[in-house]
Input
Amino acid sequence: MSGLGMDYSAGTVLTPARFVWPYGGKSVYLSGSFTGWSEHWPMTPVEGCPTVFQTICSLPPGYHQYKFIVDGEWRHDEHQPYVTGNYGIVNTVLLTREPDYNSAVSSPHMTSGSSMDVDNEAFQRVVRVSESTLLEPLPRISEVDLESSRQRVSVFLSTHMVYELLPESGKVIALDVELPVKQAFHILHEQGISTAPLWDFIKGQFVGVLTALDFILIMRELGSHGSNLTEEELETHTISAWKEAKLYLTRQPNERGKLYSKTLVQAGPDENLKDVTIKLLQNRISTVPVTHSASDDGTYPQLLYLASLSEILKLVCRYFRHCASSLPILQLPICSLPLGTWVPKIGGQSSGQPLVILRPNSPLSAVLTLFVQAEVSSIPIVDDNDSLLDVYSRSDITALAKDKIYTHLNLEEMTIHQALQLGQEPYGTTGQRCHMCLRSDSLHKVMERLAKPGVRRVVIVEAGSKRVEGIISLGDIFRFLLS
Output
């Protein structure tokens, strides 16, 4: 049996192993004790992660040393186990055939995740710096440092105001509550937005918000048997009429006869960002209208902006970018923190319910049900190996308003794959859809990614296979920081 040019005796039992260089470069090669240090094996970029290079080979059980050649320069991974040997500083790994290792063990030099993963689950990974070095668990932060970091974020948010988020120029779209529902959703789709404040001219005030969830509820109502809401009514029914119908559809059986609506969640320009963030988290929303109250002279309130968790996080990242040492938690790997939602078998510290994933051939109705009942805002779409293919989000549903797609689809027959094909523009015209990270990435790196415009969650994947391990949302970040 051989792998990548290696020649071992027929009786040698080999262990499939994956080596990963996650730090970029134009050309990356692998060399080590198992190649006699004379051969250089090419490593290839991972699809969807151009800065991550990998190669898979088969090695006999035992102690191995290895290094990387990145753009012609010998390199070692400083975050992985290493020793000083005959070939300078080299990374090390111990492969074993014993099946009773239940989890990976990290060394003092490494963070979570490894530059080498054993593919075969029967051969779990064990690493060591040297035979005399004691192995230590995953790096953790003390309660003192954790509370200190949270306090600094809290103070920062408390001393900065909403008006700091307002751009010098821009447009904000509001909808008249007397606008037909169908036309409203066409506007959302055409403008590339998933939320719009609602204005009532009779009351002279903002009375609510139209979101993608409204369209999801409408789609489910249209697809249900015995629905009283027809396509024709969707053409003529106003937003205000739909909101009244929504109260009936969403109330509990024991609330029969009761009609009530939630108070519009809004913010003023002089509110501090901590109060606004808590307001967003408590109401499970990601944006809030920023309004200037009506004056005594009878003028209407002004809609200034739609503030989002993403923009608040961007402000936090910008402030602490050059003083990261004041926030010890920023450099910790995300898998060592009670953050996000993880697949149970991965072993991440999930702070909520188990991660929901679906196959591309799942019916669209399954997605809409999860959006409403499980109250999730996006679902990773995976193949049979649980590798990430796409993400279906609440905002994707508004695309079905295009060309009246909603009038001739069956929610049970249409698959998620078909819905994504119908609703999306050709890839490359609307930007990246799936935003990914690795479980070994630092909290700071994930926060920087989530602070980019249009990014509301990142999917945690395994390097190489893109197997889904978890998901982290904007809300997860702030719930952790403000706990």
